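[step 3/7] fold_predict: job queued, chain A
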Amino acid sequence: MRIPTRSRGFSIIELMIVVTIIGIITSIVLPNYMRFAKRAKDAVVQENMHTMQLAIEAFSVGQLGSYPQPADEAVFKGLMPGGLYPNNPFTNAETTILWNADPVGAGEISIFNLPGGGYRLRGQGANAFLKDIVAGD
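[step 4/7] structure written:
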């Protein structure tokens, strides 16, 4: 003979406690995630700057020591992997390269020709300029 059992669900109090705990965990985890996402995008911009540096040095080797000028942009871009500038991690579009002007938007990179024949690369991170790369004579 079977004894009928009655199944019980969760009470409203138990459900409210679970939802509260999930909310507390989310409020702790979400700001950390956002901070790490910005740092990761800054690291991608620095990686893009390094790729630019390698292309500038390759251009210099091919041009017997002279560094690219704004007029050489087509040749310089051709030295990039795939013939394209790397993607901007903030916009997911091709990175904007500025010549002899500070970058204004997150993920943009600028190339400054220095008076002595060198160059300086400057990248814009999420909140500030990233570490400059300076090379040349």
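[step 5/7] annotate
The first helix runs from residue 12 to 62.
The mean pLDDT is 90.
exit 0
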